[in-house]
Amino acid sequence: MIVIRVPRAERTSRPVYVGSDPRTGTYRRSFEGDYHCSIDEVSLMIRDSALVTDDNKLLTDLDVSVFCPDTVKSYRNIFQLIRQNHLWNKEDDAMFLRRIGAVREDKDTGKFHPTVAGLLMFGYEYEITAVFPNYFLDYQENRTNGIYARWTDRITSQSGDWSGNVFDFLLRVIPKLQADLKVPFMFKGNQLDEDTPLHKTVREATVNMLANADFYGRRGVVVHKGADGFRFANPGSMRVSLTEAIHDSASDPRNGVMMKMLAMVKYGERAGSGLQGIFKTWQSVYHCAPKLEVTTSGGVDRTTLTLGFEGHQPDIEAMKLLYDNPDELIEVSDTPNSKGESKGESKGGTNCITQNTGQSKGQSNGEAYPLHSKGENNRIRVIRLLSDNGNLTLPEIAEKLQLSLGGVEKIVRQLKKESILSREGSTKAGKWIVKLED
After folding, report:
1. How far apart are the first and last CA of the chain?
2. Mean pLDDT rounded to a whole number for the chain
3. pTM above the 0.85 mark?
4. Which position has the higher pLDDT, 248 or 284?
């Protein structure tokens, strides 16, 4: 037997074709054999063969008026929050957009124009579709397994009631994807650490989809949230093999400038560990492997990442091990352990807030604050809300948590009595302080 292995051609060498015309002489090998590539497939290969990603292209027919000012403002607010002392915070919008790669100078005319990445990130949908006719972003949610409707919530880029650009899509969709994740209540200092490893995984999967999408391609970007998990689909194949992407931490995003912009505001990884990190976290927490596949239908490539639950509940203990510095966190726990008790439960039968010190279950280092089982979920919700925003009034707390004012007053009185909550300043102008001892 003679075995001949034909290595995968580097993307800079594609398309590999027969004859003089790549449009008629390009073939691809599938499991069944070789097949003739469509014009869409050949065009994508040609775009991907460039050393510089296509989203760095300058759109000389457009100017910065195509940008949505509210989107730029949102991006800058997040950038400033994350990078408070960064020099770019002092720049005006025009210079800031140049710094991040959304705008670049045309060397021939000296005028500034949007890049493809800038248009996709900050542009209005009708301006984007003038350049990318097939551009479409679609979020679909159906928690009923399709029993009652195709979806119970939907966001599309063409609805006309928002900008329709990539960054605003992320701001709208990611909170919806993360809303029902079952995660531990972990505090870092006096602040609730809501950015759990599972939250990061869902965010990374969304960003990965957009960073690798071929926005010239048909069928658009689709995010689906269902009772059985999540699905992220984008036009275009992977620029590296699936094995390299999953196991070798290889990173070659199709939209590299966009990826850089998102990394600046802590959306997405730049170290090449994106997909590998997604697979590791999901397998650890749900004990089932994600599925990444590239399919071709009608001459159009499509990449789909599926994060399924497969009937499993999240392994909270396994998730805690994935935190960067788990010993620095304080846990508010109401999850039963194997003995039918809550972690950190006292002998008197009350749950508690304890320092996570890496000790064995049932042990704590330092004082524990009682959290009685009756009304415990609402107590945690109040702590969580006031940790995020201590300026809220009692009526505002009641409205946000959909509780009665009397119920909120009772919870707050008990938390103050237990020294978990205190008030600083006057009734009208003061703020709430959540106290968790080290």
Report:
1. 68
2. 80
3. no
4. 284
For range 176-184, the mean pLDDT? 83
- Single out the residue of 100, 304, 109, 268 nearest to residue 174, CA to CA: 268
**pLDDT class for 351, splitting at 50, 70, 90?**
very low
Burial of 374 (0-12, 13-18, 19+ CB in 10 A): exposed
Q: Residue 6 CB: number of other CB atoms within 10 A?
A: 6
CATH of domain 328-359+367-434: 1.10.10.10
Q: Give the residue among 350, 353, 382, 384 at the shortest CA–CA distance from 367.
A: 353
Domain boundaries, the chain: 11-51, 56-308, 328-359+367-434
Q: How far apart are CA 137 and CA 123, in angstroms?
A: 13
Alpha carbon distance 244, 246 (integer Å): 6
Helix/strand/coil (H, E, C) string of the chain? CCCCCCCCCCHHHCCCECCCCHHHHEEEECCCCEEECCHHHHHHHHHHCCCCCHHHCECCCCCHHHECHHHHHHHHHHHHHHCCCCHHHHCCHHHHHHHHCCEEECCCCCCEEEEHHHHHHHECHHHHHHHCCCCCEEEEEECCCCCCCCCCEEEECCCCCCCCCHHHHHHHHHHHHHCCCCCCEEEECCEECCCCHHHHHHHHHHHHHHHCCCCCCCCCEEEEEECCEEEEEEECCCCCCHHHHHHCCCCCCCCHHHHHHHHHCCCCCCCCCHHHHHHHHHHHHHCCCCEEEEEEECCEEEEEEEEECCCCCCCHHHHHCCCCCHHHEEEECCCECCCCCECCCCCCCCEEEEECCCCCCCCCCCCCEEECCCCHHHHHHHHHHHHHCCCCCHHHHHHHHCCCHHHHHHHHHHHHHCCCEEEECCCCCCEEEECCCC
Query: Structure tokens of 397?
Result: 């707390």
CATH topology for 56-308?
A: Heat Shock Protein 90 (3.30.565)
The more confidently predicted of residues 180 and 282 is 282
Cα–Cα dist 45/27, whole Å = 12
Residue 370: pLDDT above 60?
A: no
Q: What is the pLDDT of residues 21-40, one digit of tens each?
A: 887 788 777 666 777 777 77
